[in-house]
Design brief:
The structure holds two protein chains of two kinds. Chain A is an alpha+beta fold. Helix content of chain A is 20%, strand content 37%. The N and C termini of chain B lie far apart (61 Å). The chains are: A alpha+beta, B mainly alpha.
């Protein structure tokens, strides 16, 4: 099993969710996060006082997938979240040691 | 004498003079005037419009500009200080400003605790023989005092103790607001006698609150982290809502200052529309000229700057003069808040001085110009522009001096009684938790 963490642009969330639904991803966790990478921040001005914010709002997706499905998940996110511009985000993949469905106690791929 | 003064100031002069001894005798000699229900109804409506400017208008406008950890403290300070003013007003404020007798600086104290005010007693308007009920006049003027002291708080929020605000308010009202209101608006007031034009309170409310705010924040000191840490407004949405409520409420403030539902009120109304609209547009244009984007906060700031500037001119200007006045005030206030404040380094947190103080000065001085018939104003040309400007400048200067000295006294009294400023821990954690034990957003 793989644990996939994707940081994407907030307005791309719906497209990514649709693309993942189409390949059979059954669930995910979504958080609103802030961070920075190579994309520069923005400048905000309030009554002449300038503040440059280097933390930009992003959306973080966390998805657990079987080894078989993981490459498709990565590809789907990469294609759906891309705008071909800086700041589109990153996808990280970790090995997942175990998964347990709380209601039934099932473990492994059947718990996903 | 009173009628002569009223004539000198023109039918739209700035007097809110109540029945002084001379006037009362005149009236008694003819017939006892009875308040006109139409005028009374308009003045009661105006009074409530001004209350709406304070809560929720000013509370939201200021609250949105503060950081989220201080939202409730800003709203509570504005609301509580207004409530306290209402009590002080009926105890000794009304009689100090508008009671019988007294001198050019304060009235007599014969109406303390509203002694002698009855449903039958009346207050004079600008038209001979036309009166409004005195209780209505008491309430209308009460709301002016309440919003003025609430405005001052804009410079000191996010670090002043709640208890200090309450002590400051009582002292400041007594030694600054009530005397200035008397001097500008009462029939025997010193500035009124000079012929100063202040239709709805450019000097009494705006220069007064703006200068007091500057002095108060200089004594109090800067917020921790200012100006290095970002201190962005936490909700320009709420500030925009507050701006709208202020604009609507300001029709009670300005058109209500005619004291009658008549043509002068209509003139004040149209000016309160167009000067404000012009100022909102011109602030955003100035932002563009300075290489920035036209901003929501810029729009709100321009609206308030225009409202401030048109306050003394509301019934003292033609609509075209008001448009120019609003535009000029807006541009000057833009530079006051975005250039002057950072250059001098004072922490006027919500720009009360930059907008109310500076805008009030532009409005008060500009009123001496737009009043002239050659610029479409309602003046009859009997007072030369040079003389009128001299009177306006003197009134502005004297108001600045009284406000500055009185505020220093009031702030040091508050410091002696309460300690004035919250501890650094409370300031960093936020005054909502530290001073009130609540959070605005859970």
């Amino acid at each position: 099993m793989k644990f996939i963490i994707a940081i994407i642009k907030p307005f791309k969330l719906d497209e990514v969710r649709e693309a993942l639904g189409a390949i059979g991803v059954a669930g995910m966790t979504v958080s609103e996060v802030k961070g920075f990478g190579r994309q520069k921040g923005q400048t905000e001005i309030y009554r002449g006082a300038e503040y440059s914010t280097n933390m930009l709002p992003k959306v973080k997706l966390e998805i657990a997938a079987s080894d078989a499905l993981a490459p498709q998940v990565i590809e789907a996110i990469q294609q759906a979240a891309s705008t071909d511009s800086i700041g589109d985000g990153k996808i990280f993949v970790l090995d997942l040691a175990s998964a347990t469905r709380i209601r039934t106690g099932e473990t492994g791929d059947t718990a996903l | 004498m009173i009628r002569k003064l009223l004539c000198a100031a023109g039918a739209i002069g700035a007097s809110l003079c109540v029945a002084t001894a001379a006037w009362a005798q005149d009236a008694a000699a003819a017939a006892v005037p009875v308040a006109n229900p139409g005028n009374n109804a308009w003045m009661m409506t105006s009074t409530l419009l001004v209350l709406m400017m304070i809560v929720p208008g000013l509370a939201l406008f200021y609250g949105g500009l503060a950081r989220s950890k201080n939202m409730l403290s800003v709203m509570t300070q504005v609301g509580a200080v207004a409530a306290l003013t209402m009590l002080v007003w009926v105890m000794w404020g009304y009689t100090e400003a508008f009671g019988d007798g007294g001198n050019g600086f304060i009235s007599g104290f014969g109406k303390a605790f509203l002694k002698g005010v009855t449903p039958e007693s009346t207050a004079a308007t600008f038209t001979k023989g036309v009166v409004i009920s005195e209780y209505v006049f008491v309430c209308f003027q009460m709301t002016f005092a309440a919003i003025t002291v609430a405005l001052v708080l804009g410079s000191v929020v996010e670090r002043i103790k709640f208890s200090a605000v309450m002590v400051f308010a009582v002292v400041w009202l007594t030694i600054v607001y009530f005397p200035i209101a008397h001097m500008v608006w009462a029939g025997n007031g010193y500035f009124f006698g000079l012929g100063a034009l202040d239709f709805a309170g450019g000097t009494v409310v705006h220069i007064n609150s703006g200068v007091s705010a500057l002095v108060a924040c200089l004594i109090l000191g800067k917020r921790i982290g200012y100006p290095k840490e970002p201190m962005m407004p936490h909700s320009l949405t709420l500030t925009s809502v507050g701006t709208g409520l202020l604009w609507v409420g300001w029709f009670g403030f300005n058109a209500g200052s005619a004291l009658e539902a008549n043509g002068s009120a209509g003139l004040a109304m149209v000016n309160t529309f167009v000067a404000t609209a012009s100022a909102g547009i011109f602030w955003m244009l100035t932002e563009r000229v300075m290489g920035h984007k036209s901003s929501a906060l810029g729009f709100c700031s321009g609206i308030v700057a225009g409202l401030v500037a048109v306050t003394p001119a509301a019934g003292n200007s033609g609509p075209m003069g008001a448009i120019v006045l609003g535009a000029v005030a807006s541009v000057i206030c833009y530079f006051a808040v975005s250039k002057l404040k950072p250059a001098l380094g004072y922490d006027d947190a919500l720009d009360t001085f930059g907008i109310h103080g500076i805008g009030g000065m532009v409005g008060a001085i500009g009123t001496g110009i737009v009043y002239q018939p050659m610029f479409g104003g309602p003046g009859d040309g009997s007072v030369s522009m040079g003389h009128q400007l001299g009177v306006q400048l003197f009134t502005v200067g004297a108001t600045i001096a009284i406000a500055a000295v009185g505020t220093a006294v009031a702030i040091y009294v508050a410091k002696a009684v309460t300690g004035l400023r919250v501890s650094p821990d409370v300031e960093v954690e936020g005054l909502d938790i530290g001073e009130h034990g609540e959070r605005a957003y859970n």
